[in-house]
Amino acid sequence: MTTVPPDQVMAQRLAGIARGPVAGRDLDPVTGDGTLLDDPAVRPPLVLNNRTFGEVTDIICGYAENPAPRWWLPALMFFGSIAGLGGMFIGYLVITGIGTWGLNNQVDWAWDITNFVFWIGIGHAGTLISAVLCLLKQKWRTAVNRSAEAMTIFAVICAATFPGIHVGRQWMAWMLLPLPNSNNIWPNFRSPLLWDVFAISTYGTVSLLFWYMGMIPDLATLRDRADRRLRRQVEGGPILLPFVPIRTDKIRAFVYGFLALGWRFSGRHWHRYEAAYLVLAGISTPLVLSVHSIVSFDFATSILPGWHTTIFPPYFVAGAIFGGFAMVLMLLIPARELYPHMKDFLTLRHLENMAKIILVTGMIVGFAYSMEFFIAWYSGNDYELYAFKNRAAGPYWWAYWTMISCNVLSPQVFWVRRFRTSPFIIFLVSLAVTIGMWFERFVIIVTSLHRAFLPAEWGMFHPTPVDIAIFTASVGVFVTLFLLFMRFLPVFAIAELKAVMPAASPHPHGHDGHGGDGHAAGAAPHNGHAPSLPAKGAH
Amino acid sequence: MVFGSGPKSGRLYVTEAGEPIHGIMAEFATPADIFHAAEKVRDAGYTRWDTHTPFPIHDMEEAMGVKRTLLPALVAAGGFTGVGLAYLMQWWMSAIDYELVVQGKPYNSWQAFVPITFELGILFAAFTSIIGMLALNGLPRWHHPLLKKERFLSSSDDRFFVSIEAQDPAFDPDRTRLLLEQAGATSIELVEE
């Protein structure tokens, strides 16, 4: 166990010895909320304010149990209305046809596929945090994985809508699947578009399984709390509706209880649960890398200049991580301001770590942009070179330079520590990155298509109000689902957060009560839930 | 406590009210306490017992003497089943049932079948891991004698429990209680079936 408190001043303040604001509110220029200490010998705390296990449970379950914050219902109604109006535009599209969109014979993929790639890219952060950071034993992931996984699933839902409505005759969309039909013909398994169907549906399903499995213990916690209140007949428990004598806790105990599958926190169960979690992390890691690679094959396997490049898979994956983390930050930075005590779990160190990931992946994306240009010149292919010149200086130059300034230039502010630890600046950069990543897909799709091989076919794409409305609606759906998640489900992985607190260690004084170093011969795999201990050699 | 005889184990414990006993549960205050208690229970030779902790405790499976789980092997089997079925499906549909020349590629163009084969392998492995985990754990099971005890519900919050079943061959109401007391339990309760 770390003997030196991460921040002496903060420790004294928390104990009431020193005056000053407590962690989460003050901003010490060096250590921020106490987690920004850059001393490799000291582990910054993952949970601030010396919270006990009970307080952690109370705070996080409180988000789902206490009355909703005052802004919540208006926000839900606003975004829900946007989603509903957009749903009506989708209805209009289905009734009338995709001619209501601005795409045409030359630019036959436009906003729809741009939005699809945009959302599926955003959906990469959740599984990356759950799987890749789990394998790398990055304990800070426990504070962000639940909400990032939720966001992933909602983004995949938005993404899957667009190819579904893009097929033209939407009632024939089932023919994407290898189902027997009256023509006795099967889908073309050599087409990347079909690979996409399998990649996206597998990714959505596995993300949902991962999210749900991680939530089982926390749903059981919510179930037990509702159950205990019912047994104790806590006075004044809210009745669901006037004149309907059902207590909310009855519904909670039933719904959370059903979803918790009877989890009883058994040590034998935990053992298999951790093994399953590690296995899922192991198989989700190649999955998350494969999904956006396969999305990029939609483009890379064609012969169109600007699309037909081998750099696409790694470049798309890096861009997906980049855009996904930006969206996670855009959701979590306001949340930690609006919800009480959320800053105790979501510290400045978490934000800084994610800002660093944005900086790195932004540089990878920037490298890919420049490498595309280099190869266009170096290949000696006139069409390829023209496609790229046209991107930067053609009629869509503004889209290209929006992309460059948002994706390559804006993250550069994170070289300065003061900026990458300021939630406000991180929020602004994340907003810019989200806009830039949308434009990246727009640039790739529209600028390559609008001037292909035959100049006689050249044209332009102009979005129609239906294009704009359906994209806005997808934002509405996404935020609505996230607001519902914040209201009704455990927003943090409660059990995992407790497991990374120093108090979770079974060897609190570094003494060895269980004989020898059995860890090396460990009978079971561990998955990064390990308590925050120094190296095993310490005892 | 009354000592009687039961049909299965030859022994059946019932409470004074005549209710059959599921087992005994003991509460501990800290992860370290339950860790050492688990080692004591393991060393005393119990087999049908468990710990209940709000989060997985590091190395607990060693303290409990739990054998390595079969789950990864099951997942591998599930994954390879998915791989096999996916390839078989694509080969049969493209090369046997309806031969179709696309892009001049052979009917059985294995390179083009790799992505879907991979994805379905992952899908089957993921389903195997979660369903296998639940099945090996005997879940879902929406009722359990322990969940009837109000005190036990704090195992999902900040308390740590050891439960020993009355069906355990080594179970003895007095000696088991003494063992748990010596292990530092803060409270011990009988659990009715």
Low-confidence stretches of chain B: 1-10
Question: Measured on Cα atoms, how large is the radius of gyration of chain A?
Answer: 25 Å
Q: Strand content of the residues of chain A, in percent?
A: under 5%
Low-confidence parts of chain A lasting 5 or more residues at pLDDT below 50?
A: 1-18, 22-26, 511-539
Largest sheet of chain B: 4 strands, antiparallel
In whole angstroms, the N-to-C terminal distance of chain B is 14 Å
Strand content of chain B: 15-25%
| Biggest sheet: strand arrangement of chain A | 1-2
**N-end to C-end Cα span of chain A:** 10 Å
- For the largest interface in this structure, which chains are involved and how many residues does each contribute? A-B, 86 and 76 residues
Based on helices, strands and strand pairing, what is the structural class of chain B? alpha+beta
Whole-angstrom Rg of chain B: 25 Å
Number of helices of chain A: 17
- Specify the overall morphology of chain B: elongated
- Name the assembly state: heterodimer
Question: Reading side by side through the largest sheet of chain B, how are the strands ordered?
Answer: 4-5-3-6
Listing every helix as H and every strand as E from the N terminus to the C terminus, the arrangement of chain A reads HHHHHHHEEHHHHHHHHHH
Shape of chain A: globular
How confident is the prediction overall: mean pLDDT of chain A? Answer: 82
How does this model look, in words?
- The complex is a heterodimer of chains A (539) and B (193).
- Chain A is mainly α and 539 residues long.
- Chain A has 17 helices and 2 strands.
- Chain A has helices at 8-14, 53-65, 72-96, 111-122, 124-135, 145-166, 192-231, 248-259, 267-300, 312-338, 348-378, 382-393, 397-409, 417-420, 423-450, 465-488, 494-499; strands spanning 239-241, 244-247.
- In chain A, a hairpin with a 2-residue loop joins strand 1 (239-241) and strand 2 (244-247).
- In chain A, helix 6 (145-166) crosses helix 10 (312-338).
- By secondary structure, chain B is of the alpha+beta class.
- Chain B has 5 helices and 6 strands; from the N terminus they run E-E-E-H-E-H-H-H-E-H-E.
- Chain B has helices spanning 31-43, 60-64, 71-97, 110-136, 173-182; strands at 2-4, 12-14, 21-28, 49-52, 160-165, 187-192.
- In chain B, strand 1 (2-4) and strand 2 form a beta hairpin.
- Chain B is elongated.
- Chains A and B meet through helix 2, helix 7, helix 9 and helix 17 of A and helix 1, strand 4, helix 2, helix 3 and helix 4 of B.
